[in-house]
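Late entry, evening session. Most of the bench is empty. Finally got around to the prediction I had been postponing all week. Sequence below, unchanged from the version circulated by S.P.
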Amino acid sequence: MDPSFRWDDTVRGMSTSSFSPAACPRLVVKIGSSLLVDPDGAIRSAWLATLVEDVAAAHRAGQQIAIVSSGAIALGARRLKLPKGGRASLEDAQAAAATGQIALSHIWAEMLGAHGIVAAQILVTLDDLEDRRRYLNASATLERLLGLSVIPVINENDSVATAEIRFGDNDRLAARVAQAAGAHGVILLSDVDGLYTANPARDPAATLIERVTKIDESILAMADGGTASGMGSGGMTSKLQAARIANAAGSSLAIVSGLHDHPLARFAETGRGTVFVPEKSARARKAWLAGRLRVKGSIAVDAGAARALAGGKSLLAAGAVAVAGAFERGDVIDVLGPEGDAVARGLSEYDSREAALIAGKRSDRLAEILGYAPRSALIHRDHLVLL
């Protein structure tokens, strides 16, 4: 690390359109379990001290930062002497999380406090960010804390989460937190230093991709679902999903190695990592829709309807070819293109039974089929976002 490096120089040129998350006004930093906790379940205190120094320096320079911290289960498993790192069963994971979270919070509060920074704890479940009202409440809390120069430390509430109501990894949680906080950038500190053309552990010819402007099939094909440490729950696939969520809200996301001391300063100085750049920024409600991890059903459409959606039109009944799932009016559903992939997401104007009745029918027949004056579209363009 260049001893002349200063966070002030990095932060001075910050703007809402800054390319690098290291130089944006509001940043979410995610730390994986394998970086924070060693294989024996103890905190890697020396490394964490260097990270906190980076955070404190950026904070003093004017950057607002929220931290998404893994590690509760690993810490709790050590204290409770649970097998398999506390992941042998759901009950073990919940008990380990409940025990480890209090220790994790204490560590963050103490280390940030040593730099004169107040820390806050926020624990969320999937439902907290999938339900629109609860999402807005979380957003308001984050906004107030950051405005008070507090650093929120966020984690999934694994002590109550089950397979049906959990994010499953903190990569996607970090991206959703960035949406709720209105953050301009996300940095995922990991045991890899970015996205490679192939798994570098298996292919010595693999090269690092420094910038991604569109997450298409060629990018997704490079993902490897595993983690290097075996401690975490994410892999490159989850990181790409997180990048999609962040980019949908207009935030840049970087995958950066945390295997070095001062990882944030190192990234700000060298730029080494992979940065996913958003094509454009979505309005807040549409960003929330695009970032949702659960949907209630889907409507498949023909090629003509898919083109109309891409052109900014609403989804009309005539373009629908099939309806799947059980959903009510106002539920979030996916729109599937001719190839079966999700091309859009939105709030349904009809329940699934009604949608199935009118799928493929012209507008002038809908009143006859439904027995009442139909609404203008299956999904109105104001409540629809392209994926």
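Two things to note before I forget:
The chain has 15 helices and 15 strands.
Confidence is low (pLDDT under 50) at residues 225-233.
Will write this up properly tomorrow.
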